[in-house]
Amino acid sequence: MKELKIEDIDLTGIKAVIFDLDGTLYDNSWLPLRLIMGDPKHAFMLALERHVRHLIQGQEFGDADTFYRTLFTHISERQNVSYLDAKEWYFGKYMPLTISILEKHYKAEKFVTPLISELKQRGVKTAVFSDYSCVEEKLRAIGLDPQLFDFCEAAPDLGGLKPNRNLFLRLLDVIDATPQETVFVGDREDTDGRGAKAAGIRFIKV
After folding, report:
1. Burial class, 61, CB count within 10 angstroms (exposed 0-12 / middle 13-18 / buried 19+)
2. What is residue 2's predicted lDDT score, i.e. its pLDDT?
3. Is 125 helix (H, G, I), strand (E, B) or coil?
4. pLDDT at residue 1 in the model
């Protein structure tokens, strides 16, 4: 991964820099395979969850409850399990397994802490914006203190998944910045870049 330096970001008029988490703050290579190996019994469920996310990404759900209800309903209908089983698997198995694997195999990119510290010294707000829940737990798992950032937000909590532009605009309300005052740093043009640009936010790809 490219090492991002403060010089790579034009901070003229910028009040906030938002970072994607997976694939941006750490190299998430092999994570899907490690998840399958860590829970082979639910290998199809793991693949199905990613498939359903792809189906509903960018849609507007308005709030977290509606988003998760839609996600778990899709999974239950396709996997022939109950809605509650899908929900319990996601929060009781999938997310804890992800955090455990991150703790064992992954570390934050070396550029992250110095960059965030430099941004803070310059009075620039920083945020993490992830398509998955348990943002703070995942940050700790890769060796980052969530308090290093001013804000840690999960897209589902704002009512959907990237690249829905409304999620980016809601996040701007949370951090009190306009699109013109914000930079988004991410690794995916199709989700991070597309959503940020739709909201009028400058995008930097790493």
Report:
1. buried
2. 65
3. strand
4. 55
